[in-house]
Design goal:
about 45% helix, three-stranded parallel β-sheet, single chain, binds fe (ii) ion
């Protein structure tokens, strides 16, 4: 298992608030068979010491779990914004460590007008934007044309494990299953914010996907595909 979307660094976003909780999450991930985690705290535009704090806390966490069989890479989850192309041009700190991939989220209720252009410009820079939890976006849930447009861009789609179990509501579950049935998902990740999130839905989601598409497909979506972003 390779979890490319996870809020595991303490004190930087709405994930764990203490180092102890972060450590608990790492132990839970190891228990579930996860070998690589990408820590993707919500990037805050205009917060100057964001990366300093993220690095400090991540290094603190890494030092506490260094004896475990798991790697923690740094990434971010970044809200789509017209300034994104420029920010990425100046620094690769937003990207998933050692890769060209960037986890991009949309607002929950719409696809902003600058989305297509922003994603295209990122691609021109050699960046691979990944759409974070596409199934949770209201516009994509309700508007088939919007969904087809986004999917036609050939941009990798990440779906949250919790959406398969109903944790993110019935509309997210419906779209997650539609995307799964039509082979439109590239990665499934936890988007966990606490250790209980892993318990709540990660293994259950794996079972649902394996039952619906077979174990090989589940292994691809939870492990091999996300593991290939470093290729
Ligand atoms: Fe997230």
């Amino acid at each position: 298992m390779v979890d490319i979307h996870c809020h595991i660094i303490h004190g930087v976003d709405d994930g764990p608030s203490t180092l102890e909780e972060s450590i608990k999450m790492v132990y839970k991930a190891v228990e579930l068979g996860i070998k690589i985690i990408v820590a993707t705290p919500h990037y805050r535009y205009n917060k100057t010491d964001f990366f300093k704090k993220v690095d400090e806390n991540l290094n603190e966490l890494r030092s506490k779990v260094s004896d475990l069989d798991i790697k923690i890479f740094r990434g971010t989850e970044v809200r789509i914004d017209p300034s994104l192309t420029e920010i990425v041009k100046e620094s690769d700190e937003l990207l998933i460590e050692n890769s060209k991939s960037l986890l991009v989220e949309f607002p929950y209720d719409r696809i902003p007008f600058f989305t297509k252009e922003t994603l295209y410009n990122l691609q021109l820079q050699g960046i691979v934007p990944i759409i974070a939890h596409a199934e949770r976006n209201l516009a994509l849930q309700q508007n088939r044309i919007a969904l087809e447009r986004i999917l036609s861009e050939n941009i990798p789609v990440q779906v949250d494990a919790g959406s398969f179990t109903g944790f993110n509501g019935k509309n997210s579950k419906k779209l997650a299953m539609f995307l799964l049935d039509n082979n439109l998902i590239d990665y499934i990740a936890s988007d966990a914010h606490c250790a209980e999130d892993y318990d709540e839905f990660y293994s259950k989601a794996y079972s649902i996907v394996a039952r619906s598409k077979g174990q090989h497909a589940a292994n691809m979506l939870f492990g091999l595909n996300p593991g290939s972003i470093w290729d």
